[in-house]
Amino acid sequence: LAYLGTTGLNPERAEPHELCMYFRTKTGIALLYDEVSENAYDIRLKLTKEVLTIQKQDVVCVSGSDHSANHRTVTLRRQPVGGLGLSIKGGAEHKVPVVISKMFKDQAADQTGMLFIGDAIIQVNGINVESATHEEVVHLLRNAGDEVTITVQYLREAPSFLKLPLGSPGPSSDHSSGASSPLFDSGLHLNGNSTNTAPSSPSSPIANEPKYEKRWLDTLSVPLSMARISRYKAGTDKLRSNAFEVLALDGVSTGILQFYTAQESADWLRAISTNISDLTLQNMKMANKCCSPSDQVIHMGWVHERLEGTDSSQLYKFKFLALKGSSFYIFSTPPVSTLDWVRAEKIYNLCEVLFKIHKLWLADDCWLQANLYLGIHQDFDLEDHRPYCFSVMVGHGKSHYFNVELCSELAVWEKSFQRAIFLEVQRTGSKTYMCSWQGDTLCFTVDFALGFTCFDSKTKNVLWRFKFSQLKGSSDDGKTRVKLLFQNLDTKQIETKELEFQDLTAVLHCIHSFIAAKVASVDPVFIDSQSIARKYMYSN
Protein backbone atom coordinates (compact mmCIF):
# COMPACT_ATOMS: atom_id res chain seq x y z
CA LEU A 1 0.00 0.00 0.00
CA ALA A 2 2.85 2.32 0.74
CA TYR A 3 4.24 3.41 -2.61
CA LEU A 4 3.07 7.02 -2.27
CA GLY A 5 5.53 9.40 -0.66
CA THR A 6 6.31 12.90 0.54
CA THR A 7 8.67 14.78 2.79
CA GLY A 8 8.25 17.58 5.28
CA LEU A 9 4.57 18.32 4.71
CA ASN A 10 2.87 21.23 6.40
CA PRO A 11 -0.93 21.10 5.93
CA GLU A 12 -1.20 24.82 6.61
CA ARG A 13 1.28 25.75 3.89
CA ALA A 14 0.78 23.79 0.69
CA GLU A 15 3.10 25.22 -1.93
CA PRO A 16 2.93 24.06 -5.56
CA HIS A 17 5.36 21.30 -6.36
CA GLU A 18 8.63 22.73 -7.72
CA LEU A 19 11.42 21.09 -9.67
CA CYS A 20 14.81 22.66 -10.43
CA MET A 21 13.64 24.25 -13.66
CA TYR A 22 14.97 27.31 -15.43
CA PHE A 23 13.52 29.35 -18.25
CA ARG A 24 15.38 28.56 -21.46
CA THR A 25 16.11 30.69 -24.51
CA LYS A 26 16.96 28.97 -27.75
CA THR A 27 17.12 29.55 -31.50
CA GLY A 28 17.52 27.09 -34.33
CA ILE A 29 16.50 25.94 -37.80
CA ALA A 30 13.57 23.56 -38.22
CA LEU A 31 10.93 22.61 -40.78
CA LEU A 32 7.26 23.54 -40.85
CA TYR A 33 5.37 20.54 -42.19
CA ASP A 34 2.16 21.00 -44.18
CA GLU A 35 0.05 17.86 -43.72
CA VAL A 36 -2.18 18.76 -46.68
CA SER A 37 0.53 19.23 -49.31
CA GLU A 38 2.98 16.94 -47.45
CA ASN A 39 5.70 19.53 -48.01
CA ALA A 40 8.00 21.00 -45.39
CA TYR A 41 9.45 24.52 -45.33
CA ASP A 42 12.55 25.95 -43.68
CA ILE A 43 11.82 28.12 -40.65
CA ARG A 44 13.72 29.47 -37.68
CA LEU A 45 12.45 29.02 -34.13
CA LYS A 46 13.10 31.57 -31.42
CA LEU A 47 12.25 30.54 -27.86
CA THR A 48 12.03 33.07 -25.04
CA LYS A 49 10.66 32.93 -21.52
CA GLU A 50 7.05 33.44 -22.56
CA VAL A 51 6.82 33.06 -26.35
CA LEU A 52 7.77 30.66 -29.14
CA THR A 53 8.22 32.61 -32.37
CA ILE A 54 8.29 31.17 -35.88
CA GLN A 55 10.37 33.10 -38.40
CA LYS A 56 10.48 32.76 -42.18
CA GLN A 57 13.07 34.19 -44.53
CA ASP A 58 12.12 37.07 -46.78
CA VAL A 59 13.83 39.78 -48.80
CA VAL A 60 13.38 43.29 -47.44
CA CYS A 61 14.33 46.72 -48.75
CA VAL A 62 16.89 48.25 -46.37
CA SER A 63 17.64 51.53 -48.19
CA GLY A 64 16.74 53.57 -51.25
CA SER A 65 13.27 53.62 -52.76
CA ASP A 66 10.44 52.58 -50.50
CA HIS A 67 8.60 50.40 -52.99
CA SER A 68 7.63 46.84 -52.12
CA ALA A 69 10.24 44.11 -52.24
CA ASN A 70 7.63 41.58 -53.34
CA HIS A 71 8.71 41.88 -56.98
CA ARG A 72 12.19 42.92 -58.08
CA THR A 73 13.26 43.41 -61.67
CA VAL A 74 16.99 42.96 -62.26
CA THR A 75 19.09 43.21 -65.41
CA LEU A 76 22.00 40.76 -65.67
CA ARG A 77 24.90 41.14 -68.10
CA ARG A 78 26.21 37.78 -69.11
CA GLN A 79 29.95 37.58 -68.45
CA PRO A 80 32.45 35.76 -70.70
CA VAL A 81 33.56 33.73 -67.71
CA GLY A 82 30.77 32.74 -65.37
CA GLY A 83 27.77 33.63 -67.51
CA LEU A 84 24.84 34.72 -65.35
CA GLY A 85 26.50 33.37 -62.21
CA LEU A 86 23.53 31.39 -60.87
CA SER A 87 21.83 27.99 -60.87
CA ILE A 88 18.15 27.13 -60.70
CA LYS A 89 15.87 24.37 -59.41
CA GLY A 90 12.18 23.60 -59.54
CA GLY A 91 9.56 23.81 -62.27
CA ALA A 92 5.85 23.44 -62.95
CA GLU A 93 6.17 19.66 -63.27
CA HIS A 94 6.75 19.59 -59.51
CA LYS A 95 4.09 22.19 -58.72
CA VAL A 96 6.72 24.71 -57.59
CA PRO A 97 8.14 27.74 -59.38
CA VAL A 98 11.66 27.81 -60.75
CA VAL A 99 13.89 29.28 -58.04
CA ILE A 100 17.47 30.46 -57.79
CA SER A 101 19.25 27.64 -55.96
CA LYS A 102 22.86 28.83 -56.16
CA MET A 103 24.67 32.12 -56.67
CA PHE A 104 28.38 32.33 -57.28
CA LYS A 105 30.40 34.90 -55.40
CA ASP A 106 31.50 38.00 -57.35
CA GLN A 107 29.75 36.86 -60.52
CA ALA A 108 26.88 38.55 -62.40
CA ALA A 109 23.91 37.63 -60.18
CA ASP A 110 25.81 38.22 -56.94
CA GLN A 111 27.11 41.62 -58.09
CA THR A 112 23.62 43.05 -58.49
CA GLY A 113 22.96 42.87 -54.76
CA MET A 114 19.29 42.37 -55.63
CA LEU A 115 19.07 38.61 -56.13
CA PHE A 116 18.98 35.91 -53.46
CA ILE A 117 18.92 32.15 -53.17
CA GLY A 118 15.24 31.25 -52.90
CA ASP A 119 14.03 33.91 -55.35
CA ALA A 120 11.31 32.54 -57.62
CA ILE A 121 11.70 33.65 -61.26
CA ILE A 122 8.47 35.28 -62.45
CA GLN A 123 9.53 36.73 -65.83
CA VAL A 124 12.47 36.47 -68.24
CA ASN A 125 12.78 39.40 -70.66
CA GLY A 126 9.08 40.14 -70.16
CA ILE A 127 7.94 36.54 -70.71
CA ASN A 128 5.96 35.09 -67.80
CA VAL A 129 7.43 31.77 -66.63
CA GLU A 130 5.35 31.10 -63.51
CA SER A 131 3.78 28.04 -65.17
CA ALA A 132 6.88 27.00 -67.13
CA THR A 133 8.71 23.73 -66.73
CA HIS A 134 12.28 23.58 -65.54
CA GLU A 135 13.62 22.79 -69.03
CA GLU A 136 11.68 25.68 -70.58
CA VAL A 137 13.17 28.21 -68.17
CA VAL A 138 16.68 26.80 -68.65
CA HIS A 139 16.32 27.10 -72.43
CA LEU A 140 14.93 30.66 -72.17
CA LEU A 141 17.73 31.89 -69.91
CA ARG A 142 20.50 30.30 -71.94
CA ASN A 143 19.22 31.84 -75.15
CA ALA A 144 18.24 35.27 -73.83
CA GLY A 145 21.32 37.09 -75.12
CA ASP A 146 23.99 39.08 -73.33
CA GLU A 147 21.58 41.20 -71.32
CA VAL A 148 18.87 39.35 -69.42
CA THR A 149 16.12 41.08 -67.45
CA ILE A 150 14.41 38.89 -64.87
CA THR A 151 11.62 39.61 -62.41
CA VAL A 152 11.75 37.66 -59.16
CA GLN A 153 9.81 37.25 -55.93
CA TYR A 154 11.24 35.57 -52.84
CA LEU A 155 9.59 32.20 -52.18
CA ARG A 156 9.02 32.24 -48.41
CA GLU A 157 7.74 28.68 -48.31
CA ALA A 158 10.16 26.81 -50.54
CA PRO A 159 9.53 23.03 -50.18
CA SER A 160 12.35 21.30 -48.36
CA PHE A 161 12.80 18.80 -51.20
CA LEU A 162 14.43 21.61 -53.19
CA LYS A 163 17.19 21.60 -50.54
CA LEU A 164 17.95 25.28 -50.93
CA PRO A 165 20.92 26.47 -48.86
CA LEU A 166 20.21 29.12 -46.24
CA GLY A 167 23.66 30.72 -46.48
CA SER A 168 25.54 33.16 -48.71
CA PRO A 169 26.65 32.72 -52.33
CA GLY A 170 29.21 29.97 -52.81
CA PRO A 171 32.50 30.05 -54.68
CA SER A 172 32.48 30.07 -58.45
CA SER A 173 32.57 26.77 -60.33
CA ASP A 174 33.96 25.85 -63.70
CA HIS A 175 31.44 23.17 -64.56
CA SER A 176 27.75 23.18 -65.25
CA SER A 177 25.27 20.39 -64.70
CA GLY A 178 24.64 17.97 -67.50
CA ALA A 179 21.04 17.37 -68.53
CA SER A 180 18.85 19.79 -66.60
CA SER A 181 16.60 18.41 -63.86
CA PRO A 182 14.03 20.27 -61.72
CA LEU A 183 15.41 18.75 -58.50
CA PHE A 184 19.08 19.34 -59.34
CA ASP A 185 20.89 22.59 -60.00
CA SER A 186 20.95 23.60 -63.64
CA GLY A 187 24.03 25.77 -64.07
CA LEU A 188 23.60 29.12 -65.80
CA HIS A 189 27.04 30.39 -64.89
CA LEU A 190 28.65 29.55 -68.24
CA ASN A 191 28.21 31.35 -71.56
CA GLY A 192 24.84 31.05 -73.22
CA ASN A 193 24.20 31.71 -76.89
CA SER A 194 25.90 35.10 -76.89
CA THR A 195 26.24 37.21 -80.04
CA ASN A 196 28.74 39.59 -78.48
CA THR A 197 32.28 38.35 -78.05
CA ALA A 198 33.52 41.49 -76.32
CA PRO A 199 33.65 41.45 -72.53
CA SER A 200 30.50 42.93 -71.02
CA SER A 201 30.53 45.24 -68.05
CA PRO A 202 29.73 43.47 -64.79
CA SER A 203 26.25 43.61 -63.33
CA SER A 204 26.16 46.00 -60.41
CA PRO A 205 23.57 47.97 -58.46
CA ILE A 206 22.96 51.55 -59.53
CA ALA A 207 23.59 54.15 -56.84
CA ASN A 208 19.99 55.33 -56.49
CA GLU A 209 18.45 51.86 -56.70
CA PRO A 210 17.08 50.29 -53.49
CA LYS A 211 19.20 47.81 -51.57
CA TYR A 212 17.83 44.52 -50.35
CA GLU A 213 18.72 41.98 -47.68
CA LYS A 214 17.47 38.51 -46.86
CA ARG A 215 16.30 38.41 -43.26
CA TRP A 216 14.42 36.17 -40.86
CA LEU A 217 11.08 37.83 -40.13
CA ASP A 218 8.59 36.97 -37.37
CA THR A 219 5.49 35.36 -38.85
CA LEU A 220 3.82 33.81 -35.80
CA SER A 221 4.24 34.17 -32.04
CA VAL A 222 2.69 31.55 -29.75
CA PRO A 223 2.36 32.52 -26.07
CA LEU A 224 3.48 29.66 -23.83
CA SER A 225 1.38 30.40 -20.75
CA MET A 226 -1.03 27.45 -20.44
CA ALA A 227 0.14 26.18 -23.86
CA ARG A 228 0.20 22.48 -24.68
CA ILE A 229 2.38 20.19 -26.79
CA SER A 230 1.50 17.10 -28.79
CA ARG A 231 3.80 14.70 -30.64
CA TYR A 232 0.82 12.67 -31.86
CA LYS A 233 -1.48 12.96 -34.85
CA ALA A 234 -4.74 14.46 -33.63
CA GLY A 235 -6.90 11.98 -31.71
CA THR A 236 -4.65 8.97 -32.35
CA ASP A 237 -1.70 7.20 -30.76
CA LYS A 238 0.37 7.60 -33.96
CA LEU A 239 3.63 9.28 -33.03
CA ARG A 240 5.02 11.88 -35.43
CA SER A 241 8.66 11.22 -36.32
CA ASN A 242 10.94 13.93 -34.87
CA ALA A 243 8.03 16.37 -34.84
CA PHE A 244 5.50 17.99 -32.54
CA GLU A 245 2.93 20.77 -32.40
CA VAL A 246 2.57 23.60 -29.88
CA LEU A 247 -0.91 25.00 -29.24
CA ALA A 248 -1.59 28.22 -27.34
CA LEU A 249 -4.38 28.64 -24.80
CA ASP A 250 -6.54 30.33 -27.44
CA GLY A 251 -6.02 27.43 -29.87
CA VAL A 252 -3.43 29.12 -32.11
CA SER A 253 -1.06 26.43 -33.40
CA THR A 254 2.54 26.54 -34.58
CA GLY A 255 1.71 23.87 -37.10
CA ILE A 256 3.79 20.68 -37.22
CA LEU A 257 7.38 21.51 -36.26
CA GLN A 258 9.71 18.94 -37.79
CA PHE A 259 13.38 18.46 -36.92
CA TYR A 260 16.27 16.87 -38.76
CA THR A 261 17.28 14.52 -35.94
CA ALA A 262 15.65 12.84 -32.95
CA GLN A 263 18.10 14.63 -30.64
CA GLU A 264 17.11 18.07 -31.98
CA SER A 265 13.44 17.21 -31.55
CA ALA A 266 14.00 16.02 -27.96
CA ASP A 267 16.04 19.11 -27.07
CA TRP A 268 13.39 21.50 -28.36
CA LEU A 269 10.59 19.50 -26.74
CA ARG A 270 12.33 19.69 -23.35
CA ALA A 271 13.15 23.38 -23.71
CA ILE A 272 9.61 24.40 -24.62
CA SER A 273 8.11 22.11 -21.95
CA THR A 274 10.40 23.63 -19.33
CA ASN A 275 9.21 27.15 -20.11
CA ILE A 276 5.55 26.08 -20.17
CA SER A 277 5.98 24.34 -16.80
CA ASP A 278 7.66 27.34 -15.21
CA LEU A 279 4.95 29.69 -16.47
CA THR A 280 2.33 27.29 -15.08
CA LEU A 281 4.13 27.40 -11.73
CA GLN A 282 3.97 31.19 -11.79
CA ASN A 283 0.24 31.04 -12.56
CA MET A 284 -0.29 28.67 -9.62
CA LYS A 285 1.54 30.98 -7.24
CA MET A 286 -0.57 33.92 -8.39
CA ALA A 287 -3.79 31.91 -7.99
CA ASN A 288 -2.77 30.74 -4.51
CA LYS A 289 -2.53 34.33 -3.29
CA CYS A 290 -6.32 34.45 -3.60
CA CYS A 291 -6.94 31.05 -1.98
CA SER A 292 -7.08 30.02 1.65
CA PRO A 293 -4.25 27.85 3.04
CA SER A 294 -6.51 24.79 2.85
CA ASP A 295 -7.47 25.42 -0.78
CA GLN A 296 -4.11 25.86 -2.48
CA VAL A 297 -3.29 24.65 -6.00
CA ILE A 298 -0.68 21.89 -5.71
CA HIS A 299 -0.24 21.21 -9.42
CA MET A 300 -2.00 21.61 -12.76
CA GLY A 301 -1.25 21.00 -16.41
CA TRP A 302 -2.24 19.48 -19.74
CA VAL A 303 -2.50 15.75 -20.41
CA HIS A 304 -4.05 13.49 -23.05
CA GLU A 305 -7.01 11.40 -21.89
CA ARG A 306 -7.77 8.12 -23.61
CA LEU A 307 -11.42 7.70 -24.52
CA GLU A 308 -13.17 4.74 -26.09
CA GLY A 309 -14.75 5.47 -29.47
CA THR A 310 -18.12 4.19 -30.56
CA ASP A 311 -16.32 1.60 -32.72
CA SER A 312 -14.10 0.54 -29.80
CA SER A 313 -11.21 2.55 -31.26
CA GLN A 314 -8.98 4.51 -28.92
CA LEU A 315 -9.40 8.27 -29.05
CA TYR A 316 -7.36 10.89 -27.23
CA LYS A 317 -8.40 14.35 -26.17
CA PHE A 318 -6.55 17.11 -24.39
CA LYS A 319 -7.63 17.57 -20.77
CA PHE A 320 -6.41 20.01 -18.17
CA LEU A 321 -5.94 18.49 -14.70
CA ALA A 322 -5.63 20.33 -11.40
CA LEU A 323 -4.98 19.31 -7.80
CA LYS A 324 -6.43 21.98 -5.55
CA GLY A 325 -7.40 21.85 -1.88
CA SER A 326 -9.44 18.71 -1.26
CA SER A 327 -10.25 17.98 -4.91
CA PHE A 328 -8.95 16.56 -8.16
CA TYR A 329 -10.35 18.48 -11.16
CA ILE A 330 -10.67 17.56 -14.84
CA PHE A 331 -11.27 20.44 -17.28
CA SER A 332 -11.60 20.69 -21.04
CA THR A 333 -9.96 24.14 -20.88
CA PRO A 334 -7.84 25.65 -18.10
CA PRO A 335 -9.50 27.68 -15.35
CA VAL A 336 -8.49 31.33 -15.77
CA SER A 337 -10.75 32.85 -13.09
CA THR A 338 -12.09 31.79 -9.70
CA LEU A 339 -15.52 31.16 -11.28
CA ASP A 340 -14.06 28.61 -13.69
CA TRP A 341 -13.30 26.12 -10.90
CA VAL A 342 -16.97 25.20 -10.53
CA ARG A 343 -17.20 24.50 -14.27
CA ALA A 344 -14.95 21.45 -14.22
CA GLU A 345 -16.10 18.37 -16.14
CA LYS A 346 -15.32 16.15 -13.14
CA ILE A 347 -14.45 16.82 -9.49
CA TYR A 348 -13.28 14.08 -7.12
CA ASN A 349 -12.29 14.05 -3.47
CA LEU A 350 -8.54 13.45 -3.22
CA CYS A 351 -8.91 10.94 -0.38
CA GLU A 352 -10.99 8.73 -2.67
CA VAL A 353 -8.78 8.54 -5.75
CA LEU A 354 -5.80 6.37 -6.53
CA PHE A 355 -2.90 7.35 -8.80
CA LYS A 356 -1.20 4.55 -10.71
CA ILE A 357 1.65 4.56 -13.24
CA HIS A 358 1.14 2.13 -16.12
CA LYS A 359 3.97 2.57 -18.58
CA LEU A 360 7.18 4.46 -19.01
CA TRP A 361 9.91 4.03 -21.59
CA LEU A 362 13.24 2.76 -20.31
CA ALA A 363 14.78 2.57 -23.78
CA ASP A 364 13.70 2.90 -27.37
CA ASP A 365 12.58 -0.72 -27.59
CA CYS A 366 11.18 -1.55 -24.18
CA TRP A 367 8.70 -0.25 -21.66
CA LEU A 368 7.92 -0.90 -18.04
CA GLN A 369 4.44 -1.74 -16.89
CA ALA A 370 4.20 -0.79 -13.24
CA ASN A 371 1.60 -2.91 -11.46
CA LEU A 372 1.71 -1.10 -8.16
CA TYR A 373 -1.84 -1.20 -6.95
CA LEU A 374 -2.47 -3.96 -4.45
CA GLY A 375 -5.83 -5.40 -3.49
CA ILE A 376 -8.07 -4.20 -6.32
CA HIS A 377 -8.29 -6.03 -9.63
CA GLN A 378 -7.07 -4.15 -12.71
CA ASP A 379 -7.63 -5.02 -16.35
CA PHE A 380 -6.38 -2.06 -18.42
CA ASP A 381 -5.75 -2.53 -22.12
CA LEU A 382 -2.15 -1.43 -22.62
CA GLU A 383 -2.02 -2.06 -26.37
CA ASP A 384 -1.69 1.65 -27.21
CA HIS A 385 1.74 2.88 -28.23
CA ARG A 386 2.06 5.89 -25.94
CA PRO A 387 4.66 5.91 -23.18
CA TYR A 388 4.39 7.83 -19.88
CA CYS A 389 0.87 6.67 -19.02
CA PHE A 390 -0.94 6.86 -15.71
CA SER A 391 -4.48 6.36 -14.49
CA VAL A 392 -6.52 7.93 -11.73
CA MET A 393 -9.02 5.49 -10.28
CA VAL A 394 -12.15 7.00 -8.77
CA GLY A 395 -15.33 5.80 -7.11
CA HIS A 396 -17.71 3.07 -8.31
CA GLY A 397 -14.87 1.24 -10.06
CA LYS A 398 -14.37 3.94 -12.69
CA SER A 399 -11.06 5.36 -13.86
CA HIS A 400 -9.41 7.91 -16.14
CA TYR A 401 -6.42 6.93 -18.28
CA PHE A 402 -3.91 9.70 -19.11
CA ASN A 403 -0.70 10.20 -21.07
CA VAL A 404 1.96 12.93 -20.88
CA GLU A 405 4.78 13.82 -23.27
CA LEU A 406 7.84 13.50 -21.01
CA CYS A 407 9.00 11.24 -18.20
CA SER A 408 9.74 14.37 -16.14
CA GLU A 409 6.06 15.34 -16.41
CA LEU A 410 5.04 11.88 -15.22
CA ALA A 411 7.36 12.24 -12.22
CA VAL A 412 5.83 15.61 -11.34
CA TRP A 413 2.29 14.22 -11.51
CA GLU A 414 3.28 11.25 -9.35
CA LYS A 415 4.85 13.49 -6.71
CA SER A 416 2.02 16.02 -6.88
CA PHE A 417 -0.70 13.41 -6.33
CA GLN A 418 1.25 12.08 -3.35
CA ARG A 419 1.57 15.55 -1.88
CA ALA A 420 -2.03 16.59 -2.52
CA ILE A 421 -3.49 13.36 -1.12
CA PHE A 422 -1.33 13.40 2.01
CA LEU A 423 -2.13 17.05 2.71
CA GLU A 424 -5.84 16.32 2.38
CA VAL A 425 -5.57 13.32 4.72
CA GLN A 426 -3.82 15.44 7.35
CA ARG A 427 -6.29 18.30 6.95
CA THR A 428 -9.34 16.02 7.07
CA GLY A 429 -8.10 13.82 9.90
CA SER A 430 -10.87 11.25 9.42
CA LYS A 431 -13.52 10.03 6.97
CA THR A 432 -16.72 8.23 7.92
CA TYR A 433 -18.81 6.05 5.60
CA MET A 434 -22.23 4.48 6.05
CA CYS A 435 -22.17 0.71 5.73
CA SER A 436 -24.16 -2.33 6.74
CA TRP A 437 -23.78 -5.90 7.84
CA GLN A 438 -26.47 -8.53 8.47
CA GLY A 439 -29.21 -5.92 8.27
CA ASP A 440 -27.62 -3.48 10.72
CA THR A 441 -26.77 0.06 9.64
CA LEU A 442 -23.25 0.89 10.77
CA CYS A 443 -20.64 3.64 10.42
CA PHE A 444 -17.06 2.95 9.43
CA THR A 445 -14.43 5.60 10.23
CA VAL A 446 -10.85 5.85 8.97
CA ASP A 447 -8.93 8.12 11.33
CA PHE A 448 -5.34 9.32 10.80
CA ALA A 449 -4.58 9.07 14.54
CA LEU A 450 -6.77 6.17 15.69
CA GLY A 451 -7.00 3.83 12.71
CA PHE A 452 -10.27 1.99 11.99
CA THR A 453 -13.46 2.28 14.01
CA CYS A 454 -16.86 0.70 13.43
CA PHE A 455 -19.88 1.87 15.43
CA ASP A 456 -23.67 1.62 15.43
CA SER A 457 -25.19 4.48 13.44
CA LYS A 458 -28.06 4.93 15.92
CA THR A 459 -26.58 4.31 19.35
CA LYS A 460 -23.03 5.43 18.40
CA ASN A 461 -21.71 2.47 20.40
CA VAL A 462 -18.26 1.39 19.22
CA LEU A 463 -18.34 -2.20 17.94
CA TRP A 464 -14.62 -2.58 17.22
CA ARG A 465 -11.47 -0.54 16.73
CA PHE A 466 -8.05 -1.39 15.27
CA LYS A 467 -4.85 0.49 14.52
CA PHE A 468 -3.52 0.73 10.98
CA SER A 469 -0.69 -1.62 11.89
CA GLN A 470 -3.20 -4.32 12.81
CA LEU A 471 -4.60 -4.55 9.27
CA LYS A 472 -2.95 -7.66 7.79
CA GLY A 473 -4.97 -8.16 4.61
CA SER A 474 -8.23 -7.70 2.79
CA SER A 475 -10.41 -9.17 0.05
CA ASP A 476 -13.54 -8.01 -1.71
CA ASP A 477 -16.12 -9.21 -4.22
CA GLY A 478 -15.43 -6.33 -6.60
CA LYS A 479 -18.90 -4.93 -5.96
CA THR A 480 -19.98 -3.93 -2.46
CA ARG A 481 -18.55 -6.33 0.13
CA VAL A 482 -15.12 -6.34 1.73
CA LYS A 483 -13.38 -8.51 4.34
CA LEU A 484 -10.80 -6.79 6.54
CA LEU A 485 -8.33 -9.02 8.36
CA PHE A 486 -7.03 -7.61 11.67
CA GLN A 487 -4.59 -9.11 14.15
CA ASN A 488 -5.68 -9.03 17.78
CA LEU A 489 -2.81 -7.55 19.81
CA ASP A 490 -3.54 -9.74 22.83
CA THR A 491 -4.30 -13.14 21.27
CA LYS A 492 -2.30 -12.58 18.02
CA GLN A 493 -5.24 -14.20 16.24
CA ILE A 494 -6.68 -12.87 12.98
CA GLU A 495 -10.16 -11.40 13.25
CA THR A 496 -12.27 -11.01 10.10
CA LYS A 497 -14.65 -8.06 9.81
CA GLU A 498 -17.09 -8.02 6.90
CA LEU A 499 -18.82 -4.85 5.76
CA GLU A 500 -20.93 -3.76 2.79
CA PHE A 501 -20.64 -0.31 1.21
CA GLN A 502 -22.58 1.51 -1.46
CA ASP A 503 -19.32 2.69 -3.10
CA LEU A 504 -16.71 0.14 -2.08
CA THR A 505 -14.02 1.51 -4.42
CA ALA A 506 -14.07 4.95 -2.78
CA VAL A 507 -13.71 3.38 0.67
CA LEU A 508 -10.76 1.19 -0.38
CA HIS A 509 -9.05 4.21 -1.96
CA CYS A 510 -9.61 6.15 1.24
CA ILE A 511 -8.05 3.35 3.30
CA HIS A 512 -5.09 3.32 0.94
CA SER A 513 -4.67 7.11 1.19
CA PHE A 514 -4.73 7.14 4.99
CA ILE A 515 -2.31 4.21 5.35
CA ALA A 516 0.09 5.68 2.79
CA ALA A 517 -0.02 9.06 4.55
CA LYS A 518 0.60 7.34 7.87
CA VAL A 519 3.63 5.47 6.52
CA ALA A 520 4.93 8.70 4.96
CA SER A 521 4.73 10.49 8.30
CA VAL A 522 6.75 7.69 9.93
CA ASP A 523 9.30 6.91 7.20
CA PRO A 524 9.33 9.44 4.33
CA VAL A 525 12.68 8.21 2.99
CA PHE A 526 11.29 4.72 2.39
CA ILE A 527 8.18 6.15 0.77
CA ASP A 528 10.19 8.31 -1.64
CA SER A 529 12.25 5.28 -2.65
CA GLN A 530 9.08 3.68 -4.02
CA SER A 531 8.61 6.37 -6.71
CA ILE A 532 8.65 4.59 -10.05
CA ALA A 533 8.69 7.65 -12.35
CA ARG A 534 11.42 9.50 -10.47
CA LYS A 535 13.54 6.33 -10.27
CA TYR A 536 13.58 6.00 -14.06
CA MET A 537 13.31 9.69 -14.92
CA TYR A 538 16.67 9.94 -16.65
CA SER A 539 17.18 6.35 -17.82
CA ASN A 540 15.95 7.01 -21.38
Automatic annotation (TrEMBL):
This is SNTG2 protein. Residues 166-183 have a biased composition (Low complexity). It is found in: Cytoplasm, Cytoskeleton. Its main location: cytoplasm. InterPro entries: PDZ, PDZ_sf, PH-like_dom_sf, Syntrophin, Syntrophin_4th. The keyword ATP-binding does not apply. SMART domains: PDZ. GO terms for cellular component: cytoskeleton; syntrophin complex. Residues 73-156 form the PDZ domain. One of its GO terms (molecular function) is structural molecule activity. Coiled coil: none annotated. Belongs to the syntrophin family. The gene is Sntg2. Keywords: Actin-binding, Cytoplasm, Cytoskeleton. Residues 166-209 are annotated as: Disordered.
